[in-house]
Structures are given as structure tokens and as C-alpha cells.
Design a protein that fits this description.
InterPro entries: UDP_GlcNAc_Epimerase_2_dom, WecB-like. GO terms for molecular function: UDP-N-acetylglucosamine 2-epimerase activity. Pfam families: Epimerase_2 (PF02350). It is built from 15 helices and 13 strands. Helix 1 (about 10-30) packs across helix 7 (about 175-185), helix 3 packs across helix 4 and helix 9 (about 215-230) packs parallel to helix 14 (about 325-335). Strands 3-2-1-4-5-6-7 form a seven-stranded parallel beta sheet, sandwiched between helices. Strand 6 (about 145-150), helix 6 (about 155-160) and strand 7 form a beta-alpha-beta unit. It is globular and about 60 Å long. The protein is an alpha/beta fold. Bound molecules: uridine-diphosphate-N-acetylglucosamine (UD1). The site of uridine-diphosphate-N-acetylglucosamine has 18 residues, from helix 1, helix 5 and helix 10.
């Protein structure tokens, strides 16, 4: 029985690593499932892709669809037609997609149209914000998913509300946290640590890549100034996403306290996060990692598809108005940030659960159309 594991963009790689590890463990124990790792090529920079494979011990992809850059529709179309061709030439029994990137949605559509069942890891989460491409990807993917692997009770409730029966929902936890817990003792101090004068708890980490925050130069410049003012001269380490780099190139100046660095490999990035005073971000996945590491997180968005990082964890939604940063950072400097706890099932064993369930499901084909 062959399972296609799909990965395309950076946030997918930490989500597939523990699933692959669990597949290998089951195979060694005599399990019947085999997998084929398919990289769509959506992220192709070594800094956005290859480095993650190397550090997380993910094997070379069996197939690379090499779609590269493009508009949302161009990438979606290219991934769909190339994956469809692959499935026609060499069929599979299940398409396993993770997260919410363009590759997730495109492969789910191509597979389901060829009657290959789809399993979605991190299913059911919703921001309610249709201006985010990821929200469209989540909704479309979940509309045509057979088996839903979820990270939270909120996700389970969202799926039930949309009519999915409990027999197709599997609350298994968070594979991104499997990867974090598996690597927490081998995080690596980046080479630039001393050169940039960083000290534990005495710097901030910033990541920004959402179109709403970075695509317009004026707003982006205002945001950077507000961050610099609110962080009181402490160094602000900013690993720059390729999308953000384009806007940065056109800015006249970046505040002095900013330390611009390349996108960081997994172990270095999470070392920076673990030892930061706080993280300021517009990412979703990072809010889960800060929650587990107990690091304060200020999210520059109006909504989140991961509400447990706010209700249980260390995350707070600040909004996209730069003026909102000052009061939040004052609270942080006053030592009044919440401590936070860890959401249910985020225990490092999600990959195993998923593969165990897939063995049962594919054995009986329960729930397919
Ligand atoms: C994608 C995901 C987003 C995820 C983010 C993390 C979608 C819709 N969005 O957004 O959910 O949080 O990745 O990184 O799938 N580029 C490079 N090198 C690369 C990849 C991209 O230079 O390896 C450039 C592209 O040419 C493009 C820009 O970066 O100009 C954006 O890349 P794209 O994959 O379209 O979406 P992201 O904004 O990275």
C-alpha cells in the first residue's frame, strides 16, 4: 500500500519529518504501508528547503515536481498537472497532505479527482480571514479530504460544524511539535551570535512575510519603526523571508537595532527563539513553537487559526496597526506577560498516532467515497 507524502514549502518540512520517521519505524516492525515523498518544488532555495531536509534527517524526495515561483493560480495549476501526471503513470493508495500551503491544496485536488483518497494533517483550523491564501487552501483541502488529523478541539469543532462525521476526525496532536521536542536538545547557536552581540533573553526575534504586512513599503517601514521603538534598543534579529527581501530592498533605511540575517535553518532558528526575550511575528506555526517553549509571542495579525496559542499558550494577537505594539511591549518589559501552558496532545507522539491510524484505515478503506 503506497502513501504519497506531499511537501512543498518550508512550514511543511517540520510537519512531515516525524510522519516519515513513524513510517520507517512501522516498516522495520513489519508494517504494510510504504511511502513516496513528493516535493512540489514550491520552495526551492536551499535556505528554504534543502537545509531543513538535512537537519531533520528527511530523506531525498522520490519525486520533485519543480514548480518554482509564480502567482497563486500558476503554482496551483502547475502542481496539479504535474502531480496528476505522476499519479496516472504511477498510482498511489493515499495522498497525505500537511498544513495549508498552495502545494497542500493543489495535490489534494489532483488526487481526489483521480479517486485517490486524501488525508489532511493539521485539518480543520480556520482564521476566518479569506484574504489569506492559506485560509482558502485550508477550506478547499478540507472540503475534499477523507480523513482529518487534527491538532486541537477547536479544529474538531470546526469540522463537525461543517458536517464532517466523527468517524473521519482523528485528534492526534501536532507533528510540528513532535519535531520541536525531538530536536530541543540539539538546537544550535547561530554563527553570528557573538558577532551581533546577542545575549540570552536580551534580544527579540522578528519574522514577517504576510502580504498584508510586507508587500506595501510605507506600511512596512512604519511597522519596523514601531518595533524598534517598542523594543527599547535591544537587538532585533530579523531572518528575512525571500518575499520580504523584495520589499526591504526598496526601503531607504532600516532601524539601527535591526540585525537582518538570512532565513535560518531549523536548529538555528529555534535556538534564537528559545533564548529570545520575545518573538514578534505574523506566522502561524511559530506561535505554536513559542507556546511550547514558553517564549512570549506578539502576533501582528487580527485573527489566528490557532486560538489555543492565545487561550492556552504565550501568544497574543496584537493586530496589524503598528501603534498597538507599544502597549503590548510595555506589558512585556513590566514582566506582566502570561506564562502559558501546553495544549492537549502536543506531546511529541503525533507522527506515530497518524501512521498507526493510517494502517487501520487503509487496511479497511473505511470512510472513502
Ligand atoms: C508560503 C506559504 C505560507 C508559508 C510560507 C513560509 C502559500 C500560499 N503560502 O508563502 O503559508 O507561511 O510559504 O515560508 O503556500 N521564493 C524564493 N525562494 C524560495 C521560495 C520562494 O525566492 O525558495 C520567492 C518566490 O519567488 C516569491 C516569494 O518568495 O516571490 C513568495 O514565495 P511563495 O512560495 O509564493 O509564498 P510564500 O510567501 O513563501
Amino acid at each position: 500500500l503506497m502513501v504519497d507524502i506531499i511537501a512543498g514549502a518550508r512550514p511543511n518540512f517540520m510537519k512531515i519529518a516525524p510522519i516519515i520517521c513513524a513510517f520507517e519505524a512501522r516498516k522495520a516492525a513489519g508494517g504494510v504501508l510504504r511511502y513516496r515523498l513528493i516535493h512540489t518544488g514550491q520552495h526551492y532555495d536551499p535556505r528554504m528547503s534543502g537545509e531543513f531536509f538535512r537537519q531533520l534527517g528527511i530523506p531525498e524526495p522520490d519525486v520533485n515536481l519543480e514548480v518554482g515561483s509564480g502567482t497563486q493560480a500558476e503554482q496551483t495549476g502547475a502542481i496539479m498537472s504535474r502531480y496528476e501526471r505522476l499519479l496516472l503513470e504511477s498510482p498511489s493508495d493515499l495522498c497525505l497532505v500537511v498544513g495549508d500551503v498552495t502545494s497542500t491544496m493543489a495535490c489534494a485536488i489532483a488526487a481526489q479527482k483521480l479517486h485517490v483518497p486524501v488525508a489532511h494533517v493539521e485539518a480543520g483550523i480556520r482564521s476566518g480571514d479569506w484574504t489569506m491564501p492559506e485560509e482558502i487552501n485550508r477550506m478547499v483541502t478540507d472540503a475534499i479530504t477523507n480523513w482529518f488529523f487534527t491538532t486541537s478541539e477547536v479544529a474538531n469543532a470546526n469540522l463537525r460544524k461543517s458536517g464532517v462525521g466523527d468517524d473521519r476526525i482523528f485528534f492526534v496532536g501536532n507533528t510540528m511539535i513532535d519535531t520541536l521536542l525531538a530536536n530541543i536538545d540539539r538546537l544550535q547557536k547561530p554563527d553570528f551570535w557573538d558577532g551581533l552581540g546577542l545575549q540570552e533573553g536580551e534580544y527579540f526575534v522578528v519574522t514577517l512575510h504576510r502580504p498584508a504586512n510586507v508587500d506595501k513599503g510605507d506600511g512596512f517601514a512604519r511597522l519596523l519603526r514601531a518595533i524598534a521603538e517598542g523594543t527599547r534598543g535591544l537587538p532585533v534579529v530579523f531572518p528575512v523571508h525571500p518575499r520580504t527581501a523584495k520589499t526591504l530592498r526598496d526601503l531607504n533605511e532600516v532601524p539601527d537595532s535591526f540585525r537582518l540575517v538570512d532565513p535560518q535553518p531549523y536548529l538555528e532558528f529555534n535556538y534564537l527563539v528559545k533564548n529570545a526575550k520575545a518573538v514578534i511575528t505574523d506566522s502561524g506555526g511559530i506561535t505554536e513553537e513559542t507556546t511550547v517553549m514558553g517564549v512570549p509571542c506578539l502576533t501582528l495579525r487580527d485573527s489566528t487559526e490557532r486560538p489555543e496559542t492565545v487561550t492556552t499558550g504565550t501568544n497574543e494577537l496584537i493586530g496589524t496597526d503598528p501603534a498597538a505594539l507599544a502597549p503590548a511591549l510595555e506589558k512585556l518589559f513590566a514582566g506582566q506577560w502570561k506564562k502559558g501552558g501546553i495544549p492537549a496532545m502536543w506531546d511529541g507522539r503525533t507522527g506515530e498516532r497518524i501512521v498507526g491510524i493510517l494502517e487501520e484505515l487503509l487496511g479497511s478503506k473505511r470512510g472513502t467515497n
